[in-house]
Amino acid sequence: MAIKQLTVFVENKQGALVSITDILALNNINLRALSIAETQDFGILRLIVNDEKTAEKTLTDAGYLIKVTDVVGVKIGDEPGKLTSALSVLDKAGINMEYLYAFMARTEKHAYVVLRVEDNAAAEEALGDAGFHLITEADIAKL
User: Fold this and answer.
1) Cα dihedral sign for 76, 98, 18, 142?
2) Of 13, 37, 69, at which residue does a domain stop?
3) Are 98 and 47 in contact (CB under 8 A)?
4) Where residue 75 sits, what CATH number does that domain have?
5) What is the pTM of this model?
6) Do 53 and 78 have their domain in common?
7) What is the pLDDT of residues 34-59, one digit of tens each?
8) Do residues 46 and 92 both lie within one domain?
């Protein structure tokens, strides 16, 4: 049930990010979630998009280095302490959290979070058993 994340390695210079978002827009790719981390020379852009295969091909054809990673998407209540509840489930199950970021879209009562963990299947099972709704590729397509 994991969702696909694109990791794009981006040169840390003016215009580099807009070049990527422009390519995606021109190919009708809609961003659902993103995160960017930078170093002095390059950035790591992580994306959840509505059409992962087209985005991967389009960016690869444009010369970008792309990595596709399975991540876990989870729907949590949009109120204080709900993220802690989800993270506590993983902690109690002994699952290491590598990073997380939120979706750009949210509903009135829920937020969507992308989790990169060491064991997707174990995280999905633990979160599902604890009553959390896991986000699927089909859910992303509806956003």
Assistant:
1) negative
2) 69
3) no
4) 3.30.2130.10
5) 0.81
6) no
7) 998 877 788 899 999 999 999 999 99
8) no
